[in-house]
Amino acid sequence: MDSMNGKEPNYWRSLRELHDTNSVSEMKAHEFMAGVTDDFNMDNLSGMSRKQFLALLTASAAFAATGCSNYRDKGEIVPYTKKPEEIVPGVANYYASTCTGCSQSCGILIKTREGRPIKIDGNPDHPVNQGKICAKGQASILNLYDPYRLRRPTSGSLSGKMSDLSWKRADAEIRKQLEACTNSSKQIAIVTNPILSPSAKKLFAEFAAKYPTTKQYSYDFFNDENRRRAWQSCYGDAKLPVIAWERANVVLALESDFLGAEGDSIEAIRRFTDGRDVMKSTQFNRLYCVEGAMSLTGANADYRLRLRPEAQLEFVLALAHALVVEKNVSPADKVAPQFLNGYSLKNLSEKYGLSAETLTHLVDDLIENRGKSIIYAGDGLNLSVHVVVNYLNEVLGNTNLYEQNQAQLASATTTPDEFLSLVTAMKGGQVGMVIHWGTNPVYHLPRLLGYADALKSVPMNVSLSETEDETGALCAYVLPTNHAFESWGDYQTRTDVISLQQPVIAPLYETRQKEDILLTWMSADGIHKDAAYHDFMMSHWQNEIHPSLAKKVDFKSFWFAALHDGVVRDSRAKVQERRFLSAALESMGTPQPGKGISVALRPSYYMDDGRYANNGWLQELPHPVSKVV
Ligand code: SF4
User: Fold this and answer.
1) β-pairing verdict for 154-155 and 163-164
2) ipTM of the complex as predicted
3) Closest ligand 1 atom to 135 CA
4) Which domain, by its residues, includes 54?
5) 611 CA to middle of ligand 1, Å?
6) What is the pLDDT of residues 280-320, one digit of tens each?
7) Residue 113's domain is classified under what CATH number?
């Protein structure tokens, strides 16, 4: 170090830096990996290959290094751990937030260094996932740095030519069309995923009040609609129970991958494995699995029976016959077993080549563990199977394992008939505008529905999306949206839990949060305000959620504590007493014999419904059953 003789001080961090300035300068220019250059250009890469994936990963890191900015621009955000006010170089901060990768809304902790998110883990204080998350949640950080993210608004894709446009012009033209639709009574269709956010629900209600011809359509490609409808007909409401898997000695999974990619898998895995942990449980649970194709759940089963999905109704009816008629297990009140006549496990075993010994063992096990077992049907099975499964759990007294003070909250989804009406209205000129709220119906909805063709008959189509997709390619306006780590949000999937999402970095590009975009279109002056949704959400919490929770602290203290923890619990939430309605059994269908090959669509463990297809980390993960990469 030379700070004498009026020269500039020369600081160094290693002997190599002191003596070998050229190679150190070169290293500093490439912060992450050798080979990353500032003029990296994906266009120079040949077709998609393993090498390109690796290049994309490297490029993501390079973009991150150059694109970060002051994350504190996005309003008040609160670190999970007590750290100094200002960032300390080299010292990580953790922010509690919510993963938006799927409808489970897991609590997460985002580790940041110098304002840059670098790692995602589960939030151990979140009551549902308790520190556990899936590979998609962990890899979602890569989507933030995805070089294919949209960076600025574009228009004209319908005509095949894309051109950049300013947010100001996009806002003005879209607001004009919204007003024109209102004046001419043309429908404004907003296509969303199921909305789990209390604040976003309020936002949609206010948007519909401002533009009264608005109609909201929502869908989830993989959904539990049959399970909810069956629950509604059996118990009178659609709030599904939360199952205490750890207390079940016997679990029978029917075409259900509850340990893989179905339902609340993170919580189910956590609780189910507690029942297999000798340190936590005195008795190992037993898992029976009846399924058509090998799943992660089937791979973990103690007994696995192979059965085509269409035969599952026959299977549950034969099982009910064995339990209620043959073994005389008490049926639920006022339920006559006539509908079980004609079914038997013996016939089923011969017809489908199932092991009679395993079936006998299953029946005995279920009887022996009455009140301590669970029968669980997969999301893909039809409504009648779910009704019989609810009945069987009632008969066996397994409803003991439903949490009494907690239930899952349902979010309404649009039926296929309603989507058909939308398509008809679009083709008939009754729809003046379609807004795709982070959805890609051209990819998800069946092609026979004709959604893509119908879009061409609508005067203005808008896509709010993070990346290019099939729907955006047919929309006149494609508006880029923030990544989840650049956004505010709240999510309620349980009656007694609300999770909070806070931004940990300012937007890397010219993107906006979806909710902010709607607020701009609703505002009197049409001028976008940064953090508009933060203010909207905070005011909703101050005026409605905080008073409803009857907390003893003032709102500001409550709000900062909630942001710190990433979650709020309502210990007063109660679930209505559940009474089985035997009338549900009257409208059951009859088993339809299957022919030829059956196709059962399931979400990919890593790509989900395809939304993670551009995530290099997930592409590199082997399939958990086949081990194929
Ligand atoms: S299951 Fe995975 S993708 Fe879904 S919310 Fe949890 S961490 Fe995110």
Assistant:
1) antiparallel
2) 0.99
3) 2
4) 35-67
5) 13
6) 777 889 999 999 999 999 999 999 999 999 999 999 999 99
7) 2.20.25.90
